[in-house]
Amino acid sequence: MTETLDDERVLVRKHGSVGRITLDRPRAIGAVDTAMVRAIAAGLRRWREDSDIDTVLLDATSDRGFCAGGDIRSLHEAISAGNRDAAEEFFRTEYALNAAIAEHPQPVVAVADGITMGGGIGLAGHAQVRIVTETSRLAMPETRIGFTPDVGGSWLLAHAPGRLGEYLALTSDTMDAADALYAGFADHFVWRKDLPGVIEALETRADPDTPGQLLWLFDETPDESDLVVAREWIDDAFSRQTLLEVRERLRELADEPRFAGSGRSPAAALAALEERPPTSLAVTLAAIRSARALPNLRAALDQEFRLVMWFVATQPDMLEGIRAQMIDKDQDPHWSPARLEDLPDDIVGRAFAHEVVPLRH
């Protein structure tokens, strides 16, 4: 049985005891807008109320990825037109869904195959069982577009080993399957060719094993993550108190021959930071560190909502970043301010003090 719940881009199917919710927007790699978020949430509610369902499966029809994130083109249009209410409604609806996935009574299995970024992390990252494959590419890329990690991403980043949270958030670095497992964004590595077998096993199992136990039958061990070795310089640099100190330490480490070479390196991280908008970097660094002291995901979502709406209401960098990355695609954003040294001393305090109507819990 296949149904759509108010949006043809979200397929809701029941196979035995598995309730399946599939993103069917392949041309946009599953990018979600408000209507899609509502349809996914409606599917979750349906399966919550169905006593025959013992597992929920989140996946996508696209060969390129699970979900590339939120539909930031639509977001850009709304904010540019002065329709902040539409932007606020999108974020409220999306964050409610993130929490609902994490708290769903039946285990949620998410297949983060291919590109899974931003809003895709919000869907897959809070599931009880998170699958990655050899094609998986995960990231929280918000600082690339003048924004800050949201959809509960700050919570996941804050609980990554060492200072990986700061590193991944500030640089927007992309993780492969091994990285995602090491950083705590995934639980199981399965070869893409074996995914149909995983889904069939979930749908036909007659034993009481949980989905997580069943996944061990398919689980493989990828090569060791590059992040393991990189932790030495990442923890050193990204534990510094201020952004200027982080940057200076990266410069020092970049001169050490043992950290030279291609791939992840202090020099590459430094280059990434120098391309990012200073305002996003400052607020994001504070957000990740603040999230470490928060009690749960919902508290992190509350904090993210406050910061996100501050960006929407007061900061030009978000529109400029989306323009440069997604609209004009000139890859030449003009940040305001353009240099870390020009950031107002109270910029982070202003972001955290922004007044919003709290999320409904």
UniProtKB/TrEMBL annotation:
Q: Which reaction does it catalyse?
A: 3-hydroxy-2-methylpropanoyl-CoA + H2O = 3-hydroxy-2-methylpropanoate + CoA + H(+)
Q: What is its EC number?
A: 3.1.2.4
**Top-level taxon of the source organism:** Bacteria
One GO term under biological process is: L-valine catabolic process
Instruction: Give residue ranges for domain Enoyl-CoA hydratase/isomerase.
Output: 18-352
Q: Does the keyword Cell membrane apply?
A: no
Hydrolase as UniProt keyword: yes
UniProt KW keywords: Hydrolase
The molecular function GO annotations come to:
3-hydroxyisobutyryl-CoA hydrolase activity
Checking Gene3D superfamilies in the record gives:
2-enoyl-CoA Hydratase, Chain A, domain 1
Any one cellular-component term (Gene Ontology): cytosol
Q: Which EC class is the enzyme in?
A: hydrolase
- Do you know which PANTHER family this protein is assigned to? 3-HYDROXYISOBUTYRYL-COA HYDROLASE, MITOCHONDRIAL, 3-HYDROXYISOBUTYRYL-COA HYDROLASE-RELATED
Full protein name: 3-hydroxyisobutyryl-CoA hydrolase
Which lineage ranks, top first, belong to the organism behind this chain?
Answer: Bacteria, Bacillati, Actinomycetota, Actinomycetes, Micrococcales
